[in-house]
From TrEMBL:
UniProt family annotation: Belongs to the vitamin-B12 independent methionine synthase family.
Binding, L-methionine: 434-436, 487, 602
Source organism of the structure: Lacimicrobium alkaliphilum
The protein, known as: 5-methyltetrahydropteroyltriglutamate--homocysteine methyltransferase
Cofactor binding note from Swiss-Prot or TrEMBL: Binds 2 Zn(2+) ions per subunit. Binds 1 zinc ion per subunit.
Sequence positions that bind Zn(2+): 644, 646, 668, 729
EC number: 2.1.1.14
Sorted UniProt keywords: Amino-acid biosynthesis, Metal-binding, Methionine biosynthesis, Methyltransferase, Repeat, Transferase, Zinc
Cofactor entry: Zn(2+)
Chain's gene name: metE
Length: 759
């Protein structure tokens, strides 16, 4: 067949930065522990970049991203490029040590010292990735330094790669920052910094610049739309060619705005929401490149390339070579390489594509569009079509059970439940933790040995029971009021439960970055979900037998299991969440029957699961709340239901949080110095609440005075009879020495404050 116009380019918006075997994670932790040198750590980053570029180029990607790599976080990278450093770090640290300064901002500590309060961290739009929130002040002391980016551009050039620098755009950076006041008043100062970056990239002859403006997926008001025109109208591009990139949502509602900007191209996420590609092409200037993000960058299902071909073929002909093809967003949110998965069910594996395979999909699709020969993509797409009719995906009995449900929420109101829960005999300002305790090397060794069948089931159970005994004893020694079993048997708060659910499977190497050195391995939901057996009852029953104090049953909520999994795309997310909720409800009932009086159903992901557009929020929140209520519907009044949330902007979802109707809500607030509780000043939370007083994401140990001050701030919002004392989140990533010290200070602060209140 005759070849067509070959001007089409394949590119990616970013690639997983952790390495094929989590090399970045291990290098970070070794550097923080002083076990490797700075040079050794930096060399690991260079090796990962080199490998990433090689994987993409070998798969057929022609324009490779540079600057998508970060030692910790790409938003923090942008702050460092601009020299926007919170004053406490600039004052208390050696600013010449750029790497350690980066880690002080991210986690409050680096190998050279400085135990400062880390910068706030929150979710990157509706993903499970966390970014470091820039802290802005009235006068931005901008000192531009993009030497790390320039060095990476040079690295790629020396390896013979054609590269495309990646930079978070000024409007999105500003929008996602923390500032008390009108952020847009800072735009002129910020643009002066971006102009310096543009000038330096011009001097380096960068060519194309991918400038990410994901806030274009939001429903921006007139002031922010005007700011886009101002910013891009003022920035002098020189020889740079700007590819404006947005993702996670459709940008159809902002096409007039985008078309008015002085750009050279635009990237469209064609996966996250329905988008009118034809309308986009018609409205954009005819000389622009149109990058179509047609491969899902956030999920791991193999693409139906034959269906994509039918959709793209007429558009490609119309654009006359101005078409670029890409994943919908950065591949940061996918595992690196499916070929490592040597123990997956072969049929399920045939349905999947990780980051490396998604690059190959682009290459196959391009060849079909160039030649018109569709044989290869039709063969590739056959498993996709087979999955949609697979017997593994449907459980008729489950669907009938869900359709006949009658009890979908608790029978008694909070006031009645509060009275009956007095039988728990808890003190004022009860102390507890969120669930997990340090996952020591010994615990990991035992789990790995059991997985390799080096331990029998009896030996493993006995070993885990010993760990639970130790955890209970430590908590009693510290003086906590409500205990947990510590979760030594759990590899992850979602993956653990996935192993007990039909319709769900786990991978061996399907890791993705959550933040810094924290990686998660999302389960794969491929079919209807039912519980195979009790998941937690034996462990919790054993823990409760060791103490007279109440031990919380620890469950992960349906929305969080949904959001932190790779979810099937042939059912709505609501339908999948309802199936998970029923499985959690069955587990809740088993715990109650076993005598567990306090059960925590964690929902840290409820905020991140919201659609990007505000107009779509309520529909999501309605079914998310309904799923949580279903999960605890069978709990009688004297059983206390807790829930936990972190990194949630409570103003956005306060009505939904109240509607959950948990007896006790624990939330992350310590990094923000209780600022996140401001939401509850405007609309009081009616049930019990535990605002976190210990930032577990930092190795720093809070002193008693610090915790007491936070609790006093909380008491300005929450009455003492409804206030709990707890850390921000689980403690699995911390060591026992710092954990014991921090929790001892927390209990001491609570006891001192009780005494003051008693007077």
């Amino acid at each position: 067949m005759a070849k067509r116009n070959e001007q089409m380019k394949l590119h990616t918006l970013g690639f997983p930065r952790i390495g094929t075997r989590r090399e970045l994670k291990f290098a970070l932790e070794q550097y923080w522990q002083g076990r490797i040198s700075k040079q050794e750590f930096l060399q690991t980053g260079a090796d990962i970049r080199r490998q990433n570029w090689a994987i993409q180029q070998q798969a057929g990607i022609e324009l490779l991203p540079v600057g998508d790599f970060a030692n910790y976080d790409h938003v923090l990278n942008t702050s460092l490029y601009l020299g926007i450093i919170p004053q406490r770090f600039a004052r208390d640290s050696d600013s010449s040590d750029k790497l350690d300064l980066e880690f002080r901002i991210a986690r409050g500590r680096a190998p050279t010292g400085c135990a400062c309060a880390a910068s706030d961290m929150t979710k990157w739009f509706n993903t499970n990735y966390h970014y470091i929130v820039p802290e802005l002040s009235q006068q931005l002391d901008i000192r531009v330094d993009i030497q790390p980016l320039l060095e990476q551009i040079e690295e790629a050039k020396n390896l013979g790669h054609e590269s495309k620098p990646v930079l978070l755009g000024p409007l999105s950076y500003l929008y996602l920052s923390a500032f008390e006041g009108d952020k847009l008043q800072l735009l002129p100062q910020l643009l002066a910094g971006y102009q310096q970056i543009f000038d330096k990239l011009n001097s380096a002859r960068a060519g194309w610049l991918q400038i990410d403006e994901p806030i274009l997926g939001l429903e921006l008001d007139a002031d922010w739309q005007k700011a886009f025109r101002q910013a891009y109208g003022e920035l002098r591009q020189g020889s740079l060619k700007l590819l404006l990139t947005s993702y996670f949502a459709s940008i159809d509602h902002h096409l007039d705005l985008i078309a008015s900007l002085p750009l050279h191209g635009v990237h469209i996420d064609c996966v996250a929401e329905p988008t009118d590609i034809q309308l986009t092409i018609d409205m954009l200037p005819r000389h622009w490149v149109v990058s179509l993000g047609v491969i899902d960058g956030r999920n791991i299902w193999k693409s139906d390339l034959s269906a994509l071909y039918q959709k793209l073929e007429p558009l490609y002909a119309q654009l006359n070579g101005r078409t670029w093809l890409a994943p919908s967003c950065s591949l940061l949110h996918c595992p690196v390489d499916l070929e490592q998965e040597d123990k997956l069910d072969p049929q399920i594996k045939s349905w999947l594509a990780f980051a490396s395979q998604k690059c190959q999909e682009l290459s196959l699709l391009k060849q079909a569009l160039l030649t018109g020969d569709t044989a290869a993509i039709e063969q590739y797409s056959a498993p996709v079509k087979a999955r949609l009719v697979s017997a593994q995906a449907v459980n008729t009995a489950l669907r009938e059970r869900i359709g006949s449900l009658t009890q979908v929420q608790r029978a008694e109101p909070y006031a009645v439940r509060k009275q009956k829960q007095q039988s728990l005999a808890l003190p004022q300002l009860p102390t507890t933790t969120i669930g997990s305790f340090p996952q020591t090397a010994e615990i990991r060794r035992l789990r790995a040995a059991y997985k390799r069948k080096e331990l029998s089931s009896e030996e493993y159970i006995q070993a885990m029971q010993q760990q639970i005994e130790d955890c209970i004893a430590r908590q009693e020694e510290i003086g906590l009021d409500v205990l947990v079993h510590g979760e030594p048997e759990r590899n992850d708060m979602v993956e653990y439960f996935a192993d007990f659910l039909d319709g769900v499977t786990s991978t061996r190497y399907g890791w993705v970055q959550s933040y810094g050195s924290r990686c998660v391995k999302p389960p794969v939901i491929y079919g209807d979900i039912t519980r195979k057996q009790a998941m937690t009852t034996d462990w919790l029953s054993y823990a409760q037998s060791l103490t007279d104090k109440p031990v919380k049953g620890m469950l992960t909520g349906p929305v969080t299991i949904l959001c932190w999994s790779f979810v099937r795309d042939d059912l709505s997310r609501e339908q999948v969440a309802r199936q998970i909720a029923l499985a959690v409800s069955d587990e809740t009932e088993d715990l109650i029957n076993a005598g567990i009086k306090i059960i925590q159903i964690d929902e840290p992901a409820i905020r991140e699961g919201m659609p990007v557009k505000h107009s779509q929020w309520q529909q999501y929140l309605d079914w998310a709340v309904a799923c949580f209520r279903l999960a605890c519907a069978r709990a009688p009044a004297d059983v206390q239901i807790h829930s936990h949330m972190c990194y949630s902007e409570f103003n956005d979802i306060l009505d939904a949080i109240i509607a959950l109707d948990a007896d006790v809500l624990t939330v992350e607030t310590s990094r923000s110095n209780m600022v996140l509780l401001d939401a509850f000043k405007h609309k009081a939370y009616p049930n019990d609440i535990g605002p976190g007083v210990y930032d577990i994401h930092s190795p720093n140990v809070p002193d008693t005075g610090w915790i007491t001050d936070l609790l006093k701030k909380a008491l300005e919002v929450v009455p003492a009879e409804r206030l709990w004392v707890n850390p921000d989140c689980g403690l699995k990533t911390r060591g026992w020495q710092e954990t014991r010290a921090a929790l001892t200070n927390m209990v001491t602060a609570a006891q001192q404050l009780r005494a003051e209140l008693a007077k």
